[in-house]
C-alpha cells in the first residue's frame, strides 16, 4: 500500500481547515476488505472484489465544538479528488462508488454514529479489459464522454 495516496488526501484544503475526512482501508484478503465489499451493491461487488484495496471514506459531520460541518461532502470530495490523482500518478487506478449500503457499512465495520459513510474507492492495477464479459466489458470499452466547455461555462467562456 502506498501511503502517499492517503497523504495526498490528508493535505487537501477544507473549509476552516475542518478536515472532516476519515478512512478505513481494507486490503484484499483481510477482514476489513470483506466487510467493505459486503456493503457494495451486487454490480459493484462483481468487479470490486478483484481490487487490491477498498477504501471507505467517512465524514465527521460535527466539529469538536459541536457545531455542524456544513461543507463535509465538498471537503471529502476534494480530498478524494486529490487521492484519485495521486493514485493514477503512481500508475494505479482508483474507482469511486456511491453504490453501497451505508447502514451495512456502518454496522459491518462498527462505525461510530458521529461518522457518516460517504464513498468507497477501489484501488488496484489496471487489468486487460478482454478478461471481462457482458456489461462490464461494454463499460470498460465505452468512449469516455463529458459535457463540452460551452455547456458548463455559463458565462465568460474564454475565446
Ligand atoms: C461520486 C461517484 C460515485 C460513483 N459510483 C459508482 C458506482 O457505484 N459504481 C460504478 O461502477 N461506478 C461509479 N462511479 C464511476 C462513474 O460512473 C464514472 O466516473 C463515470 O461514469 C465516468 O466514467 P469515466 O470516469 O471512466 O469517464 C462513481 C463516480 C463518482 C465520482
TrEMBL record:
Pfam families in the cross-refs: Nitroreductase
GO molecular function: oxidoreductase activity
Residue ranges constituting the Nitroreductase domain according to the UniProt record: 5-124
Lineage: unclassified sequences, metagenomes, ecological metagenomes
Classification via Gene3D superfamilies: NADH Oxidase
InterPro entries listed in its UniProt record: Nitroreductase, Nitroreductase-like
Organism: freshwater metagenome
Protein name stated in the entry: Unannotated protein
UniProt KW keywords: Oxidoreductase
Family label: Belongs to the nitroreductase family.
Amino acid at each position: 500500500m502506498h501511503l502517499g495516496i492517503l497523504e495526498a488526501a490528508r493535505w487537501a484544503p477544507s473549509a476552516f481547515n475542518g478536515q472532516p475526512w476519515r478512512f478505513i482501508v481494507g486490503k484484499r484478503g483481510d477482514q476489513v476488505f470483506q466487510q467493505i465489499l459486503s456493503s457494495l451493491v451486487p454490480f459493484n461487488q462483481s468487479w470490486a472484489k478483484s481490487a487490491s484495496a477498498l477504501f471507505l471514506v467517512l465524514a465527521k459531520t460535527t466539529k469538536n465544538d459541536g457545531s455542524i460541518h456544513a461543507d463535509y461532502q465538498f471537503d471529502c470530495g476534494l480530498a478524494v479528488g486529490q487521492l484519485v490523482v495521486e493514485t493514477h500518478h503512481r500508475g494505479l487506478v482508483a474507482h469511486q462508488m456511491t453504490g453501497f449500503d451505508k447502514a451495512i457499512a456502518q454496522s459491518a465495520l462498527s462505525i461510530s454514529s458521529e461518522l457518516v459513510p460517504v464513498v468507497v474507492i477501489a484501488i488496484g492495477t489496471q487489468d486487460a479489459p478482454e478478461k471481462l464479459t457482458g456489461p462490464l466489458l461494454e463499460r470498460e470499452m465505452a468512449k469516455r464522454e463529458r459535457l463540452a466547455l460551452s455547456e458548463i461555462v455559463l458565462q465568460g467562456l474564454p475565446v
